[in-house]
């Protein structure tokens, strides 16, 4: 892909992405992440690093390359870079790209080992110029593309032969997932409904936990401790959950079989019984023979 062609495609994707958000066809993920960055601190960054180390089963990423597909806030690109990886971040959402670039500016200015750019995981020609990576990471992204199975297939060739694929995909709850799809569509198409739908989402996600906290005389303890899992914010995650559109889901079995048929072996798995994301770490089969 020539440099001029690449710049043209980037500008085209930026324009289309912004138009989709304006029309209510897509949630403004980047605007949400920009607000999240105001609460970002070293404690949250360390939690993000620890979550990568735990699921990838590594101590650091020295000598490794890390591709962040749909970098969002940029938190996990930053975590990977602080673990000494060479990082390439891209996102379809214009403001998400800006958020990731801002974190690079804050923590790794003028660093040649961290690239941030606009790109779409559905653009096969764009992906071809990226090459392959030791870790391909896409947490809670591919189900928001509008073509989840295409996106899941597109990331597979980006994993090097000795690499890991770390993805998180919304759990398929059948009719419950279809109800949530209705909520998400209305949140984006009907702005007047957002306060009501956010209240609904907050009650659904946190109502029982907050009541139990009060019962055990530790008000809002669960809310305050939420960041310890991945360094994220409970409020902005609720906004992301309610607004996140497009929206697709998959069962753990479906994801496992999809990547098994493409030469991957499941290395690590965290499943959710409710509406959250199932997390998967896959390896290429041949890497286990070393």
Structure description:
There is one protein chain. The protein is α/β, with parallel strands linked by helices and 290 residues long. The chain folds into two domains: 213 residues, Rossmann fold (3-Layer(aba) Sandwich), CATH 3.40.50; 69 residues, no CATH class. The chain is built from 13 helices and seven strands. A seven-stranded mixed β-sheet has the order 3-2-1-4-5-7-6, with helices on both faces. Strand 6 and strand 7 form a beta hairpin. Helix 2 packs antiparallel against helix 12, helix 3 packs across helix 4 and helix 9 packs across helix 12. The longest helix is centred in the C-terminal third of the chain and has 22 residues.
Question: Which outline best applies?
Answer: globular
Helix tally equals 13
Biggest beta sheet attributes: 7 strands, mixed
Q: Which strand order do you get reading across the main beta sheet?
A: 3-2-1-4-5-7-6
Q: Flag low-confidence runs.
A: none
The span between the termini is 35 Å
| Class from helix and strand fractions | alpha/beta
Q: β content, as a range?
A: 15-25%
Which CATH architecture of the largest domain is right? 3-Layer(aba) Sandwich
SSE order, one letter for each helix or strand = HHHEHEHEHEHEHHHHHHEE
Q: CATH superfamily of the largest domain, please?
A: Vaccinia Virus protein VP39
Output mean pLDDT. Answer: 87
What is the CATH fold-level name of the largest domain?
A: Rossmann fold
Helix content: 40-55%
**Rg of Cα set:** 19 Å
Number of strands: 7
| Count of individual domains | 2
The top level CATH class name of the largest domain: Alpha Beta
């Amino acid at each position: 892909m020539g440099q001029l062609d690449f710049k043209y495609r980037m500008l085209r994707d930026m324009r289309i992405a912004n138009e989709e958000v304006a029309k209510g066809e897509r949630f403004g993920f980047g605007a949400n992440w920009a607000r999240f960055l105001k609460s970002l601190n070293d404690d949250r960054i360390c939690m993000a690093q620890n979550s990568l180390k735990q699921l990838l089963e590594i101590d650091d990423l020295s000598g490794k390359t890390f591709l962040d597909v749909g970098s969002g806030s940029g938190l996990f690109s930053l975590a990977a870079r602080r673990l000494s990886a060479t990082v390439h971040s891209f996102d379809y959402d214009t403001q998400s790209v800006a958020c990731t670039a801002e974190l690079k500016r804050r923590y790794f200015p003028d660093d040649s080992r961290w690239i941030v750019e606009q790109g779409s995981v559905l653009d096969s020609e764009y992906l071809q110029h990226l090459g392959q990576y030791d870790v391909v990471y896409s947490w809670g992204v591919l189900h928001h593309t509008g073509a989840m199975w295409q996106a899941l297939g597109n990331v597979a060739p980006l994993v090097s032969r000795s690499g890991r694929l770390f993805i998180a995909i919304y759990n398929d709850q059948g009719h419950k997932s279809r109800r949530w799809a209705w909520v998400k569509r209305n949140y984006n198409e009907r702005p007047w409904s957002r306060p009501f739908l956010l209240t609904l989402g907050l009650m659904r996600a946190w109502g029982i936990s907050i009541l139990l906290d009060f019962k055990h005389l530790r008000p809002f303890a669960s809310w305050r401790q939420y960041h310890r899992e991945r360094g994220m914010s409970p409020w902005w995650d609720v906004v992301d959950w309610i607004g996140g559109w497009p929206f697709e889901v998959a069962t753990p079995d479906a994801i496992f079989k999809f990547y098994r048929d493409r030469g991957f072996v499941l290395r690590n798995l965290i499943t959710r019984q409710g509406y959250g994301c199932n997390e998967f770490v896959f390896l290429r089969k041949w890497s286990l023979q070393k």
